[in-house]
């Protein structure tokens, strides 16, 4: 039997609720009993989302609505809430979290415009119309120009690292122009944690492949660029906590104290100032393989021919990865794990954020202060639990 709704607690809507961060946010709210009502909206169904066992309750069919949130005609279905009693007052969502948008890299501009930019604006306008108390827009630290020193919220955004970041920033800008929208933007670095794909998952799949190859002959896993290239990080559980804190804070505050501009935007990052060298060291410890960095000659060639270099690396690894999965009995579901390299993610660009403003204004403290050998081992264990790990 469903537990009674506590009307004193906020009602919560998560757009992109089955995405990587969305499901952890839903779980954070569910396990800490923070909301009276929680609704997850996503285009895919929970049954097809490779949910971890601990996420199935938070992402249950009862909390779920299948819809394309980028479409104006879907908004009534997404935002309408039933009264608590047949003759009770109309209810609205208190907090709306936008974790949606196109997560793949190297897509056409039109794809990001429709699936990220348009999504943010459509949902943002509806949230404003309905008087939502806090609208949390999840953005990325890759909107900043590459910098080895930590970027503050007002720093340059003229050269975003990826097309995805370009359209995320465009959405941020347009959302600030919507009258009455109680907007707070969070810019995150590389998010990692259990079940993660993309940035960390790719590195771990590659390391596993090199570990397997080292049975025949010693081979060093060499990274492009340099060991001091910044690749700042945040654990997904801290990302979820940060989003909740941001919503609670924004519902009570109209501006950032002593801010030099009106835009309410925060960087969220751990304390580790993670670099490629950090990651190479951890991979070496976890997988017992040699790691290193390419020389200047190779790096110069890669800068001029990145597409060619990435294609060569992918050609060299993808068949071997498929063989390794097959040998391990992993047929259809390897989850998000693959050594496939994205050209956009391999660019020579530093991702380095200053999270001081969010910590001092909102009071956030990351529980996972830095990425460590133990954190990475926990990620590998999560893959094993899901039977994704060869």
């Amino acid at each position: 039997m469903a537990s009674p709704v506590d009307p004193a607690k906020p009602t919560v809507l998560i757009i992109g609720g089955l995405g990587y961060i969305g499901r952890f946010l839903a779980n954070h709210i569910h396990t800490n009993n923070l909301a009276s009502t929680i609704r997850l909206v996503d285009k895919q169904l929970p049954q097809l989302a490779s949910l971890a066992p601990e996420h199935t309750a938070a992402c249950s069919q009862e909390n779920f609505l299948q819809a394309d949130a980028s479409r104006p005609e879907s908004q009534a279905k997404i935002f309408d809430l039933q009264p608590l009693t047949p003759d009770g007052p109309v209810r609205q969502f208190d907090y709306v979290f936008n974790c949606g948008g196109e997560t793949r890299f190297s897509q056409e501009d039109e794809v990001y415009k429709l699936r990220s930019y348009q999504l943010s604006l459509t949902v943002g306008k509806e949230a404003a119309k309905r008087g939502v108390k806090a609208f949390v827009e999840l953005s990325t630290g890759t909107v900043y120009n590459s910098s080895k020193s930590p970027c503050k919220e007002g720093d340059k955004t003229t050269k975003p690292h990826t097309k995805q970041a370009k359209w995320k920033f465009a959405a941020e800008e347009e959302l600030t122009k919507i009258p009455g929208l109680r907007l707070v933007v969070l810019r995150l670095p590389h998010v990692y944690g259990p079940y993660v794909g993309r940035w960390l998952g790719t590195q771990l799949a590659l390391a596993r492949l090199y570990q397997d190859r080292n049975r025949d002959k010693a081979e060093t896993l060499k990274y492009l660029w340099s060991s001091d290239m910044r690749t700042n990080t945040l654990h997904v559980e801290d990302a979820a906590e940060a989003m909740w804190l941001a919503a609670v804070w924004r519902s009570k505050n109209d501006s950032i104290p002593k801010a030099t501009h009106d835009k309410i935007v925060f960087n969220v990052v751990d304390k580790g100032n993670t670099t490629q060298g950090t990651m190479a060291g951890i991979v070496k410890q976890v997988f017992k393989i040699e790691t290193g960095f390419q020389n200047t000659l190779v790096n110069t060639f890669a800068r001029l021919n990145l597409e060619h270099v990435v294609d060569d690396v992918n050609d060299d690894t993808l068949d071997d990865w498929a063989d390794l999965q097959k040998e391990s009995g992993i047929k259809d579901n390897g989850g998000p794990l693959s050594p496939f390299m994205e050209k956009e993610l391999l660019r020579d660009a530093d991702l380095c954020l200053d999270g001081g403003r969010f910590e001092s204004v909102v009071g956030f403290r990351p529980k996972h202060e830095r990425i460590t050998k133990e954190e990475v081992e926990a990620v590998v264990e999560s893959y094993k639990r899901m039977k994704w790990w060869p």
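The first helix runs from residue 20 to 31. The radius of gyration is 21 Å.
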